[in-house]
Every structure is written in structure tokens, then in C-alpha cells.
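Lab notes, practical 5.
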Amino acid sequence: MHRFAFMIHPLDITYFTQKFPIARYLPAGLLEGVIRYLPPLKASHITGVRSAHAETEGWFVACLLTTRQMLELPPELVTRQIIRTGRLAEKLGAEVLGLGAMTSVVGDAGITVARNLNIAVTTGNSYTVATAIEATEKAAAMMGIDLARAEVAVVGATGSIGAVCARVLARRCQGLTLIARNETKLARLAGEIKDATGLKARTSGHSREALRRADVIITVTSAADTVIEPEDLKPGAVVCDVARPRDVSRQVAERRDDVLVIDGGVVEVPGNVNFNLNFGYPPGLAYACMAETMILALEGRIENFTLGRDLTVEQVDTINQLAAKHGFRVAGFRSFELPVPEARVDAIRERARHKVALAR
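Output from the prediction step:
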């Protein structure tokens, strides 16, 4: 049996104030100053992952830096803490390590971490892309959107996940807008897409204007705060939020009952998995980045798989095939961790049509 570990971290300091009541009485600056020196910990033992071909077990290991700290502290300090957490995974017996949330983004996206560990490393981004696009296609179809004719936007298009999402979508749609802050990288990506597919993608650094035109949006920035608000979306839009922390404000769910927001990259894990940790989903469900690490362990591919910022379509296709072999599959739609039944999608679609009709 090959074993794995997956690295997690707290999204913000509320994790500490909830877990340790005394932390509520500390100034935020002081608390963050303490956090930056805390050692990693084993968060839980994961059991019961079993396919028709193999089985595996693993661990959640926690780097205790928050999202904001990972973005604002010196990159070398953050990388040291991630490597330190990876060494804990080694001691536990893991052979492949998945980097979760911001640990897969900071620095050079896992390359330096892999060089300093004696186990394989992956960010999980390949399977994240595969599942996000599959879920988005299904959601668009249920909302009556023909993806081939739709206006599609990718927010955070110059990141590793966003760029390969854009490349895959360019083969399936006629109208594509790439949204990011770096205009040079946007222009380069648009040129590569045109060379590969013939599609002339639009680029924009002004997300709100571009978002209001889009029928379908995949958003995957590395922002610490939300970037999509209720007023940014047209009636009937489908938004797949792959980012953690989330890109889509919770106010969208509260105020916009005419748009469909789905969580990206949620999958059913084969076997009778027990994560022994509550990360917001019902038993048996996991993020796709977690699942990629499990898939590699089940397949016995003890190798660095998805690292750096040059993710390829071929990697996405490969992990998707391995996922199917071992029985992983995209879960039903979820929005802000809650299930979205088909009847709710139907109601959203009808409200959107009514609102569009009134506006004419």
C-alpha cells in the first residue's frame, strides 16, 4: 500500500479564536506574530480509500500560517514552514504529498518544496481543472446555456489553474475573455491560445465590466478577499468558484437568486473513506486537489505530478483517466458547501428568464 498526505492550513485567525478561546483576548497582530512560529501538526488520519484496483491511507498535515500570512510574509519564510510541514508528512510515512489551498500557490508553486523533500509532491491542480470544467459544463447545460455559443470568462487566467482552464475552454467555446491584473501575461496567454486553437480571446484587467457580459465564469484567483459581488453578474449566469479562499462573495448567494454559483472541484471518493476531520463537506466528498493525491497513491505513481505554473492539458487528461479508473467522480452541485438539488437549478433558471423578460 502506498500512503499519502495532504497539507492544509487555516484560512484566517478565526480558526485559532474558535479552537483556543484564550486567543480571543489577544490583539490580532500579536496572535499572528505567534502563529508564524508554530510547528506543523498532524490534523487527522485518513482511512478507507479503496478502489477496485488498490487501497490507500494518509494524513492531513497542517501548516498553521493563515491565508493572509502566506500572501504577506516573506516568501522564503512561508516556504520554510511548508517544507517543515512536508517533513512531518515524511515522518508519518507518506510517499506523496498534496499541497492544499495557498500552500500550492506561494513561491514557485511547489517546485522548491519538492526539491527539499524526499517524497513526491503535487499541487492537485490537474484534477481540480478537470472537475471544475466538467461541473461547469453540466451546470451550463442545466441552465439552458449552450457553452459553444456562450460568453465565457476565466478570472485569474494567468495563474496555473486559470491558464489551463482557459486552454481547455478555448477548444469548446467561441467567446472567451481572460481576466487578470498582469496585462503582459494576459497578452502572452491569448497569443498561445490563438496559435493552438485559432480562437481570438479577449483580455481584460477590469473584471467587473467583463463579468457583466459573461454567461459562464470560472474564477480561480489567489486573492485573500472576494472579487465577485452581487452586482457583477448578469441574470442566468453560471459561476464555478474554484478558489480557496472563495472568490465569490456570500452576498451573491443571499441577494442573487437568479444566478447559479457552484463550488469547483468537489468529488466522491471511492471506498468508505473517513477523513476524521470536518472541512465542510458530507462524508465521502473531497476537494479535487485532495483526490489527486489519493489517485497518485492508489495508482502507485510516486512522482512529482503537478508542480509549478506551467500546467498542461495532457496532465489534466491523464489524471482524469486515472480518476475514472479508480472510481472518483464529480459530485452533485454544491454551493457554499451546501447541496444544490435539480429543482433549485430549475427555479434559478426560471427566475433569470423572468428578470431578462422584464428588462426588455
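Observations recorded by the TA: The chain has two domains: 4-126+268-330, 127-265+333-359. The chain has a mean pLDDT of 94.
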